[in-house]
Amino acid sequence: MPRIKFVDVTFPPHELPTSFDIEARLRQHLQNLRLARVATKKDLMLSEADQLKISRRTESYLTAVARATRMSHLSKEDRRKLEVLRHGAELRPIESEHHADEIASALHAEMPWMAEATERVWQEMRASVRNGDPAPLLKPLLLVGPPGIGKSFWARLLAEKLSVPTTIIEATGEPAAFSVVGTQRGWSTAGPGKPLDGIMSTGVANPVIIIDEVEKAGLVVSNKGQRFSLSEGMLPLLERLTAAKWACPYFRVSFDMSWITWVMTANSLDGLPAPFLSRCPPMQLSALSKSDLLGFAIREGSRRALPDDALDAVLEVINVLEVKQMVSLRSVVRMLDAADVAINRPFLH
After folding, report:
1. What is the pLDDT averaged over residues 175-190?
2. What does the alpha-carbon distance between residue 125 and residue 146 come to, in Å, rounded to a whole number?
3. In Å, how far from its chain's centre is CA 11?
4. 3-state secondary structure 126-192
5. In this structure, are 127 and 154 located in the same domain?
6. Does residue 4 sit within a domain?
7. Average pLDDT, the chain
8. Cβ contact 265:152 at 8 Å
9. Does this model's pTM top 0.70?
10. How large is the average pLDDT for residues 21-38?
11. Do 188 and 309 belong to one domain?
12. Domain membership flag for residue 81
């Protein structure tokens, strides 16, 4: 698998000497210099001024080394966290245009109503292969449509077919701005964002990051009155040039976040600003038909190896519903889950 330099720092050698070791070497060096010029061991003893000078030079050396790494402002704990990136991060590639065709075909077979989204990533995957990119370069996707049509399900399926990790951020259930970009020091919850945290945990630089209901992300206001919005915070991450040298507010060093595939879902465009929409033009999706739901239930039930009678029961429930009562994809998944549990329930003795 190809690897890239992911964080813009220089890691010192593993065997970097401690301040105790450096001071011992400097003392020995000074004594060796004096040995040729003095007659007695007493003359080799180091004065208090000598000790102070050695301590200052040791401190200067360690400061210079830290400054050269661009990590001098970080604590030992944070430098240890970045150590996992010493050898860069892995990129999961698409080997050929045929591989891209297979991924797109699998996506379409599972969720044919998402054809427009599948078509776009298919063309972008093929273009990346032709351009010789080490991994697929997929533009940010904003999927807009009614709830329950499988927008985030499709995004998770895309990640599965690409063989990359997935991070899901619920914009309505957490301070989404901080969950994505992280929190600078001074906040009680200071730390890196979930995308960066996930890359550091998995070592894979091109995950799929899913942000659900992005239009419902509220503002975060600090005790000093500063306002932070998800859409504004994401702007540098949605442009490849700026994402390649993205400055993390927590670590205060640059990371190459340009290989991330962003998939955002929304039920409407209300509240989403123009700069955000210009970087990820919305893709409008329609509600599911009954035939879409039936087809999905059949394919998913077969994948789970559900018996025919259990699958027929789920299909019957879908069939008897009127259009206005149409269940969502989530409801179908819950019905299949319930059938799965019922079939595999242990017998009571």
Report:
1. 75
2. 27
3. 22
4. HHHHHHCCCCCCCCCEEEECCCCCCHHHHHHHHHHHHCCCEEEEECCCCCHHHHHHCECECECCCEC
5. yes
6. no
7. 87
8. yes
9. yes
10. 81
11. no
12. no
